[in-house]
Fold this protein.
Amino acid sequence: MSVRLHFVVEGHAEEGFVNRVLKPHLAALGIYVDVTMVSTNRDLGRRGKGGIVNYAHLMNDLVDRIKEDQGPDARFTTMIDLYRLPDEFPGMAGARPRPAHEPIMSSVVRHMAKRDGDPVDRLVHSGLGASGRVNIRAWQSLDEGATWTGETVFNDGLAMYSVLSVLDDRSVGMVYEGYDTTEEAFGPAIFFVRFDVARLDKGVAASPAASEPQVPARR
């Protein structure tokens, strides 16, 4: 008897792994695979795809798939990233301490160095806060990474990986993965923002309008 195996997965990486690796392998064993990404926004009939914001998003899609195929040869499974899984997932509350900010989805660059004749040593760090994959932000350190100050938010909404670079005019450029919610494009997108390090001296949790425009670099 053949088996239909339905995957509900967190994002594009998991979807690609299922389609490229698991699907052809399992097909040879008589197990036929399909994959659906978690829907993170169903407002106004639009479905945001990818990234688990809360437990309900995963359960809603999993229950939908079970209702669609109730045959005796149907099986269901999930593939999600356990890192930074929300505490509301069963068994996750209190399972591990939350860092002050996201240590993996981040970038650090040296902006100034006394050894090069600059007045201070300055590092700039970008990443996420402790509340999950939202609101990309930046900090600065004037003591070689011992402390980080001037936390400044650069977007309002879903965000993930970021990369920093010091530009020719000594401003800082940041490329990050965000989420485009315009009518023209709804889904993951790559954004670029340029900012002066003086903004980090104030540590303002600013909206995108308070900095240079967030430019979609790629969709």
